[in-house]
Amino acid sequence: MILLVDIGNSRLKWTQAEAGVLKPTIFMDYRQADFPERLREFWLSIPAPKQVAMASVSENALTILLVDMARALWPGVELIMPQSSQTAFDVKNAYTEPEKLGVDRWLALQAAHRYYPGDTCVVDCGTAITIDFIESDGRHLGGLISPGLFLMKKSLADNTAALPFSEDQADTSLAIVTAAAINNGTLLAAAGLVEAALARQPKAYQLVLSGGDGDMLARHLAVPSIVDGGLVFKGLLNYCRNENAS
Ligand SMILES: Nc1ncnc2c1ncn2[C@@H]1O[C@H](COP(=O)(O)OP(=O)(O)OP(=O)(O)O)[C@@H](O)[C@H]1O
Ligand SMILES: CC(C)(CO)[C@@H](O)C(=O)NCCC(=O)O
Ligand SMILES: [K+]
């Protein structure tokens, strides 16, 4: 078994890979006080992994906590922590400073290149919305970063007197009450961003979505898309030896 860990900006996501097949993802809020205990209990209940692969775009302290926990639970376990680089698994990073590209974006690009070959636009709709374009030959063209839906709504609530934070259902129609106006406005901002990014390219790209709001965004886009919430995990798996072994 290989333990795969994606430390995002708001949540920790982890899963087990057995013979290359991913189990359901466990999502955890790492800001809760009892998070380390809850995670340790979870990890005590699973078979000892041969390898632990981690991707982190979060604070170092959290990464260190998780590394220490894995080492304490499974002494001698092999830890794999990929970093963004110039090229990996036939993907060429477009950034002028390749190591500055978020490792979540880098891993998602590698997974997209492997599992969704072709000219592809990879969108992660999480804390941030990231949009990256990759050509069928593995050349990354670059990307875009915007606040995600939660942050858009939170910044409205935090910076105005009259606007509340609302998590009601959203669509892209015109609203006649405040909460719907915010939910629909921010959803249309996200959908419009993705549609505009695609429309401004000189050719067509297939669209692959991931992230906590990926499903919701997919339902409201005017263009077809594939939703795959496992892109970062699949990218991590590339870096593991014997990925097909149990
Ligand atoms: N407390 C919360 N903070 C932020 N987002 C939340 C929270 N609760 C629910 N969400 C939802 O999850 C979305 C974030 O998705 P996701 O879980 O992929 O983000 P993440 O864990 O921070 O990962 P990443 O950093 O990779 O984007 C938000 O836009 C929001 O809709
Ligand atoms: C953009 C986020 C926050 C998305 O999770 C992450 O990929 C990150 O911290 N990136 C570093 C900056 C960059 O990718 O240009
Ligand atoms: K992300």
TrEMBL record:
Keywords: ATP-binding, Coenzyme A biosynthesis, Cytoplasm, Kinase, Metal-binding, Nucleotide-binding, Potassium, Transferase. Its main location: cytoplasm. ATP binds at D6, I7, G8, N9, S10, R11, L12, K13, T127. It holds the Pfam family Pan_kinase. One of its GO terms (molecular function) is kinase activity. It is found in: Cytoplasm. It catalyses: (R)-pantothenate + ATP = (R)-4'-phosphopantothenate + ADP + H(+). The active site is at D104. InterPro entries: ATPase_NBD, Type_III_PanK. It is an enzyme of class 2 (transferase). SUPFAM superfamilies: Actin-like ATPase domain. The keyword Coiled coil does not apply. Homodimer. Catalyzes the phosphorylation of pantothenate (Pan), the first step in CoA biosynthesis. This is Type III pantothenate kinase. It comes from Methylomonas fluvii.
